[in-house]
Amino acid sequence: MKKFRVLVIGIGILTGIIAGSFYLEHNKKVATIIAQRPIISSIPTISASLSTSPTPSPTPSNTCNAPLVLVDKIHALPPTYVPPDLVYISQYNIPVANTSYQIRKIVVPDLVGMIKDANAQGINLIVISPYRSYNTQAEVYDYYTRTDGVTAANQYSAIPGHSQHQLGTAIDFSTNEISNGLDQSFADTNAGKWMAENAYKYGFVLAYPIGDESITGYEYEPWHWRYMGVDNALKIKNSGLIMQQYLEKYGYLPNC
User: Fold this and answer.
1) Buried b (16+ CB within 10 A) or exposed e, 16-48
2) Segments of 130-201 assigned E as strands
3) Taking the CB of residue 174, how many other CB atoms lie within 10 A of it?
4) Greatest Cα-to-Cα distance within the chain, rounded to the nearest angstrom
5) CA atoms of 156 and 174, how far apart (whole Å)
6) Within-domain flag for 131
């Protein structure tokens, strides 16, 4: 039986990226994410059957910037990796939980289009958690391990370096239907159902589907979507594979 509680995380943005001057508020604790996380009375052990050596061809020189880079419980990004084209989401009139949040610029056109089309159909979407630096992920992971223990935290939180959020192309979405929270009830909202049916058209793929916990190594997260590009998202959908399986077969190992 899953119980839900609200976990309030004060996230410190520690990237300290310089662009003429330090990005505003990035060296302070500036964001509070309210997330409903499942607390499981009897925690199952998720044993993921992950591949160690995808063998695609050709391989980009810097695979960490490639849409098909494989980041999971085995394959990690280095602590120094920062996406090359981070931009502030709020400047594009995209609903976002905090104005300091960033995403890769390559995501913006399709994200804007998706939000616009969703809104036109009466669907409310908001970006809750996009890019996270290695250090920010370390804070998040440390919080959960101290709160719920390592075994539980590992089911839903990535060890620093292993988070897709560090790529700058993964987004946690929510909706005002559930007060902008993050929990599995997102799947039952109009927004969640719309995303499940339409997100691939805009290049987004669900990272951790229901029933595939033994493959991904993570609990079902209907709010966590990764931007792969429209062509890749369609290929993944048509392949019948989930994203993890597709990247193990066709993706790139992190090299940066």
Assistant:
1) eeeeeeebeebeeebbebebbbbebeeeeebee
2) 170-174
3) 28
4) 51
5) 17
6) yes
Please count the structural domains in the chain. 1
CB within 8 A of 145, min separation 6: which ones? 153, 157
Phi, psi of 122 (to 5 degrees): 80, 20
Q: How far apart are CA 25 and CA 22, in angstroms?
A: 8
Confirm whether 90 is domain-assigned.
yes
Whether 143 contacts 197, CB under 8 Å: no
Q: Is residue 70 part of a domain?
A: yes
Which single residue is written with the structure tokens 């039952």?
188
Domain span including residue 136: 49-250
What CATH number is attached to the domain comprising 161?
Answer: 3.30.1380.10
Question: What is the C-alpha to C-alpha distance for residues 218 and 237, in angstroms, rounded to an integer?
Answer: 20
Q: 57 CB contacts (<8 Å, ≥6 apart)?
A: none
pLDDT greater than 80 at residue 5: no
Average pLDDT, the chain: 84
Kindly report the backbone phi and psi dihedral angles of residue 146, in degrees, each rounded to the nearest multiple of 5, phi listed first: -70, -30
Of 226, 236, 218, 87, nearest to 155 by C-alpha is 218
| pLDDT tens digits along 74-99 | 999 999 999 999 999 999 999 999 99
pTM for the whole thing? 0.83
- Which residue type occupies 129? S
